[in-house]
Amino acid sequence: MYSDRGRGRGRDRGRGRGQWRSPGGGENWGFRGGSSGPSFHCDSPVGADGSSSDGKSFSNRGRNSQPNSRGWFPSYPNSAVNIFCQKEPLEKKSLEDSMSSTGRILHDQSAPSCSSIESNHSDCSVASNSVNKGDSDTVSVPLGDGAKDGSMHLDLSHKLNIVPLENQNESLLSFQAGAKDPLSQEMDPNNVASAGDSGYSEQQAVVKLFDICLPKTGTIKLKPSLLAKNREKRNDAKRAADGMNGRILRPGMVLLKNYLSLPEQIQIIKLCRDIGLGPGGFYQPVYRDGGRMHLKMMSLGRSWDPDRGEYVEHRPVDGAKAPIFPSDFHPLVERAIKDSHALIERNLKSTSAEVILPSLSPNICVVNFYSESGRLGLHQDKDESQESLDRRLPVVSFSIGDAGEFLYGDQRDVEKAEKVFLESGDVLIFGGMSRHVFHGVSSVQPKTAPKALLDETNLRPGRLNLTFREY
Ligand SMILES: O=C(O)CCC(=O)C(=O)O
Ligand SMILES: [Fe+2]
């Protein structure tokens, strides 16, 4: 998935942690490269709510420092934890050793976990999403393949035990290891390894559920302010004006703007919400040293271990196996690849699109939910199988909800990275020569989600991202 760590294949080892930092005032944004290897910045110790205690960052320039898996930047639940970036990989045994025989693990998902980040957007307007150096590198072509005609809407609900949105109540929802669900395989209560705020204290893992949709309260909605109305109008007008179009950002990297129809986005939210409330559903990855990632995630098809940075049978936090990968996603991913091929062929007047951007048959989907202060550091996605990586099979990313500022580049250096805004309905694909591009999400743009999407789903403020991969 997102790791820089090797699995005996001679890849980089070691994990550093970093965070986005503002470009001015002597602060850095994320990782910086250097001749003797990149240096990384750890999160400050933070309070229990994950907010930075002093707004500053510690810097660690350890030898061989690498970001942690996917460059996820944790915050620390208390100042006593080790804030150094460089850590040896966690052995499962030591995890188990560190647990008492009654390790109950309860993550505080409701607490805001992300320290706020400073962000300078003045130089990265939406128009700047023609990311490469010159416009010649950016192609904008209307797409035709029926993504918007409503004919390809997903009907995913038949597979699901959909919980009515009205019944949402985060405090009542928790999943205990050992519970069964058709979307997930049996969990192994003995395989409990997690680092909640209170450490390992009881035997059974309980991951507090995270509902990406807010409860429908039934209370009368206040009329939106004029300001809010105008903002919505502007956003809607922009979306309409943008239409659906495709851009080649670099060889093997294609952005399909406004690609998923509203009904498709709604279905995807409902599906993710439903799966996310079951076994193996959304949780906030926490490192065993207490560092937290700045998002909630789940992984479909295969579990993912943040400490090892690799796909595993049971996820360490609660022993859950991954929910199954819903085959309903296949047609959407296939359509996006097909349209990308058409775009490449039109643009390059070549028929070698499959060489430039190979097709994939996804069997893993990493689903991230970023709150308004969520983020993800620059990283490469390198945890898929060696064959998949060697074939440079693409990662296909769906963005839904609030827009996110997405950075990408050849190095783990935020200042050298290109920027593009990923808005609701956008699909980004990076494969072929771009398969190993460094990428991350520097910020979420609050209140940019389409109103109709929120009205229909009650999606929380924030951004949902799905990345499809073939293991
Ligand atoms: O949220 C995004 O746009 C990127 C997610 C990502 O890079 C990942 O999950 O590996
Ligand atoms: Fe990634």
From TrEMBL:
Q: Annotated Gene Ontology MF terms?
A: broad specificity oxidative DNA demethylase activity; DNA N6-methyladenine demethylase activity; ferrous iron binding; oxidative RNA demethylase activity
Predominant place of localization? cytoplasm
Instruction: Note the superkingdom of the native organism.
Output: Eukaryota
State the SUPFAM superfamilies in the record.
Answer: Clavaminate synthase-like (SSF51197)
* InterPro entries on file: Alkb (IPR004574), AlkB-like (IPR027450), AlkB-like_sf (IPR037151), Oxoglu/Fe-dep_dioxygenase_dom (IPR005123)
Cofactor stoichiometry and binding remark? Binds 1 Fe(2+) ion per subunit.
Q: What is this protein called?
A: DNA N(6)-methyladenine demethylase
Q: What is the lineage of its organism?
A: Eukaryota, Viridiplantae, Streptophyta, Embryophyta, Tracheophyta
